[in-house]
Amino acid sequence: MKKIITTQNAPAPIGPYNQAILVNGFLYTSGQIAIDPKTNELVTDSLEKETRLVMENLKAILAEAEMTLENVVKTSIFISDMNNFAKINKIYATYFNEETAPARETVEVANLPKFVNVEISAIAVK
């Protein structure tokens, strides 16, 4: 049976989806962008700040499901420009232990919601 995971510490959904779904010990998060959950404002003044906020939003959702980034087994990173990969990867790397980091793909896309530079989703397991 699936359980809807919702927290006020991450951006509220802006469509027919939930922040995350927990089913059989697996947590599937929706893609997170750099919306500050306290102000509901988009943060794109620097790629580093934007990436950090995306990761913090993911952490908040994981925490609501009583998990941490250590529970993450897979991430999907969508970026608007592959030239930004190194900067995004540098921030992303600070959130994971390299030896136990999750599987991942990084894909350049034509556009992202609200024309952000980066969106990340995760799958975690208890």
From TrEMBL:
InterPro entries: RidA (IPR006056), RutC-like_sf (IPR035959), YjgF/YER057c/UK114 (IPR006175). GO terms for molecular function: 2-iminobutanoate/2-iminopropanoate deaminase. Keywords: Hydrolase. It comes from the Bacteria. Its EC number is 3.5.99.10. Signal peptide: none annotated. Pfam families: Ribonuc_L-PSP (PF01042). Gene3D superfamilies: RutC-like. Belongs to the RutC family. This is 2-iminobutanoate/2-iminopropanoate deaminase. It comes from Mesonia maritima.
